[in-house]
Design goal:
Layout: H1 3-11, E1 15-17, H2 24-30, E2 38-40, H3 59-62, H4 76-93, H5 98-122, E3 130-133, H6 139-144, E4 148-151, H7 163-175, E5 180-183, H8 190-199, E6 202-205, H9 218-232
Parallel strand pairs: 1-2, 3-4, 3-5, 5-6
């Protein structure tokens, strides 16, 4: 973070952030703030264990504890929980506008409920339940909709998979007749394309929503993810 960004955080009435080591610079910056001016939304969610760190298995236990997956936003029900927590904290800070905060959170929750139901319905009757992804960002989505995530890399999208891991994923694709290898908009598709070329699968884009969508909003991006998944998994 720049000096200006740290100053901006310090001057904020409320800083909403992702903890659990996902945004360490922000965690450090808000550590000096009063507790009521910082909201770690990951504390509102039952976090899943990290999955897919094939190059570093056992490191978390060696360092004294199991690390957790921060990608909670890929389950719309978690986004409802987060929206409600943010509205509640804003209402405490700015009680004059509490009704508006609560109303906005309710409206968003209703839209997220519709999205959740559409995803559940669209992914309920599929010939496959296996999703092969560039990195292990989709654990919450998989858990919510009864899918099985197989990641090429671990939790870090920039990590390079080993040749052994590439061969392991390619075998999985062959053995389970996986039709699509998913890549992401912020990561080179080269590794996904390598496995696709070797196995005869196609590539498709699945957004982990780790940055602002280039167009539309969160719900639009998740609807696009639904469409890509239903095509890849041959859902009826």
């Amino acid at each position: 973070l720049s000096v200006q960004q740290v100053r901006s955080l310090s001057d904020s009435d409320l800083v909403v952030f992702l903890g659990a080591g996902f945004q360490p610079a922000i965690e450090d910056a808000v550590s000096a703030l009063n507790e009521d001016r910082a909201l770690d939304v990951l504390e509102e969610i039952d976090l899943l264990p990290r999955s897919g760190d094939h190059e570093h298995e056992g490191e978390a236990e060696h360092e004294g504890g199991e690390e957790r997956d921060p990608h909670v936003w890929l389950d719309p029900s978690n986004m409802t929980t987060i929206a409600e927590a943010v509205a509640a904290r804003l209402s405490e800070i700015d009680p004059a506008h509490a009704e508006a905060y609560e109303s906005n959170a309710e409206d968003l929750a209703a839209r997220l409920d519709v999205l959740d139901a559409e995803l559940a319905d669209g992914l309920s009757q599929c010939d496959s339940r296996d999703i092969v992804t560039s990195h292990a960002a989709f654990g919450y989505l998989a858990a919510r909709y009864d899918l099985d995530q197989v990641s090429i890399s671990g939790i870090d999208p920039e990590a390079e998979p080993s040749p052994g891991r590439l061969a392991e994923v390619a075998r999985f694709v062959h053995e389970h007749d996986v039709s699509a290898i998913f890549f992401e908009e912020l990561v080179s598709p080269a590794v996904a394309e390598t496995i696709a070329n070797e196995t005869g699968a196609r590539t498709a884009m699945l957004s982990p929503l780790e940055s602002r969508p280039s167009s539309g909003d969160y719900i639009d991006a998740m609807e696009s993810n639904r469409d890509e998944l239903t095509k890849a998994l041959d859902c009826g």
